[in-house]
Amino acid sequence: MKKLIIINGPNLNLLGKREPEIYGNQTFKDYFESLKHHFEGIELEYYQSNIEGELINKLHEIGFSYNGIILNAGAYTHTSIGIGDAIASIKTPVIEVHISNTYSREEFRHKSFIAPNAKGIVIGFGLQSYELAIRSLL
């Protein structure tokens, strides 16, 4: 059985409340339950932290034993060389995910420190971006 994890970074714990015009009205908890139901044949886990070092620690912890990581590092995507380096240091493939189209937003969101070390990127398809990333790993 494939073992995948979704890792969300800062402020993504506020999905459903935060800027619904960009991120929608559904909580990630509710969406994650629907993903688990849709992908019953895989072991799917979820982790979220607002703290950069905790995200790096999680990548180190699972980066040699899981079949795939779906990572939405939020704003850390555009600022964290450390998260980019952590991805380069592990063996598990990482798919970078963004709910919004980061290229249609502020210019600082056009640079990713994750992308050079990711297997692929899915951006701009709302919460469905996570489903597309899972499918890419199966």
From TrEMBL:
<keyword id="KW-0057">Aromatic amino acid biosynthesis</keyword>
<feature type="binding site">
    <location>
        <position position="72"/>
    </location>
    <ligand>
        <name>substrate</name>
    </ligand>
</feature>
<keyword id="KW-0456">Lyase</keyword>
<keyword id="KW-0028">Amino-acid biosynthesis</keyword>
<dbReference type="Pfam" id="PF01220">
    <property type="entry name" value="DHquinase_II"/>
</dbReference>
<dbReference type="InterPro" id="IPR001874">
    <property type="entry name" value="DHquinase_II"/>
</dbReference>
<dbReference type="InterPro" id="IPR018509">
    <property type="entry name" value="DHquinase_II_CS"/>
</dbReference>
<dbReference type="InterPro" id="IPR036441">
    <property type="entry name" value="DHquinase_II_sf"/>
</dbReference>
<feature type="active site" description="Proton donor">
    <location>
        <position position="98"/>
    </location>
</feature>
<feature type="binding site">
    <location>
        <begin position="99"/>
        <end position="100"/>
    </location>
    <ligand>
        <name>substrate</name>
    </ligand>
</feature>
<feature type="binding site">
    <location>
        <position position="78"/>
    </location>
    <ligand>
        <name>substrate</name>
    </ligand>
</feature>
<comment type="pathway">
    <text>Metabolic intermediate biosynthesis; chorismate biosynthesis; chorismate from D-erythrose 4-phosphate and phosphoenolpyruvate: step 3/7.</text>
</comment>
<comment type="subunit">
    <text>Homododecamer.</text>
</comment>
<comment type="similarity">
    <text>Belongs to the type-II 3-dehydroquinase family.</text>
</comment>
<feature type="site" description="Transition state stabilizer">
    <location>
        <position position="18"/>
    </location>
</feature>
<comment type="function">
    <text>Catalyzes a trans-dehydration via an enolate intermediate.</text>
</comment>
<feature type="active site" description="Proton acceptor">
    <location>
        <position position="23"/>
    </location>
</feature>
<feature type="binding site">
    <location>
        <position position="109"/>
    </location>
    <ligand>
        <name>substrate</name>
    </ligand>
</feature>
<feature type="binding site">
    <location>
        <position position="85"/>
    </location>
    <ligand>
        <name>substrate</name>
    </ligand>
</feature>
<protein>
    <recommendedName>
        <fullName>3-dehydroquinate dehydratase</fullName>
        <ecNumber>4.2.1.10</ecNumber>
    </recommendedName>
</protein>
